[in-house]
TrEMBL record:
It comes from Robiginitalea biformata (strain ATCC BAA-864 / DSM 15991 / KCTC 12146 / HTCC2501). It holds the Pfam family Rieske. Keywords: 2Fe-2S, Iron, Iron-sulfur, Metal-binding. This is Rieske domain-containing protein. PROSITE patterns: RIESKE (PS51296). The lineage of its organism: Bacteria, Pseudomonadati, Bacteroidota, Flavobacteriia, Flavobacteriales. InterPro entries: Rieske_2Fe-2S (IPR017941), Rieske_2Fe-2S_sf (IPR036922). Residues 67-140 form the Rieske domain.
Length: 142
């Protein structure tokens, strides 16, 4: 079923809610899991093992210590908070759309690889971490 067809089956109100999830202001509903944005991040990923396999293709990502570590579409490593800057749910992932961005599944916020918000869900930048590759060791740090 095409997206447009799916939205039509939901009716106008539901389609509006899907397309514009935060027009009335997002609220933290009951059961919305939140986490603190990670601080003091400094750890190393061994790319000679399973983590290396999981990050072998452009667009791949893994999550460690509430940090999303991705190989972007150019093949470079980038890292961002798994915890969204909007309402702190740990739902940020790397997605391949728009040349590779970070996106939160909770309300649909999108962020450039430098953390800049890309839509109107939030104006708060996503926390970005540095990466440094030394052989098979990928350091992720602030
Ligand atoms: S918590 Fe709202 S978009 Fe991420």
């Amino acid at each position: 079923m095409e997206r447009k067809e799916f939205l039509r089956t939901l009716g106008a109100g539901a389609a509006f809610a899907v397309a514009f999830p935060c027009v009335q202001g997002c609220t933290k509903g009951p059961g919305l899991e939140t986490e603190p944005v990670p601080t003091g991040v400094d750890f190393t990923i061994d790319l000679s093992g399973p983590d290396g396999d999981a990050l072998s293709g452009n667009g791949d990502f893994i999550i460690r210590n509430y940090v999303v570590i991705a190989r972007n579409l150019a093949g470079d490593f980038v890292a961002a908070s798994q915890v969204c800057s909007h309402q702190q749910t740990p739902e940020v992932r790397f997605v391949e759309s728009q040349g590779g961005i970070f996106q939160c599944a909770t309300h649909g916020s999108q962020f450039a690889q430098d953390g800049t918000p890309l839509n109107s869900v939030t104006s708060n930048p996503l926390k970005i971490f540095q990466t440094a590759l030394n052989g098979d060791q990928l350091r992720v740090f602030e």
